[in-house]
Amino acid sequence: MHAHPVLHVTWRTLVTIVGGAVLIAGIIMSVTPGPGAAGIVLGLAILATEYAWARGLLHRARMWARRAKKVAMEADRKRRERRARKGR
After folding, report:
1. DSSP one-letter code for 30
2. Residues 6 or more apart from 18 whose CB is under 8 A from it?
3. How far, CA to CA in Å, does 8 sit from each of 11, 13, 46, 67?
4. pTM of the shown model
5. What's the pLDDT tens digit per position in 44-72?
6. Exposed / middle / buried, residue 68 (Cβ in 10 Å: 0-12, 13-18, 19+)
């Protein structure tokens, strides 16, 4: 598709529209009920197939998600330890 100019522009436009819509939905869901972070990461992943700037943002978003997971798991571990000590 990238070799043919018309198909390339059509494909890139389609990726932009779909990826942008998913990204915007993710941003909206981050302040309303819904899986906002997942929508943002998915939208960036779609856009990253065609745009270098989206690849950079996706890399940052993945690093943020890993850190958030680590913090949440640590908080859960501490909560379980407190609960175990309290039950003794």
Report:
1. T
2. 46
3. 5, 8, 16, 36
4. 0.72
5. 999 999 999 999 999 998 898 889 889 99
6. exposed
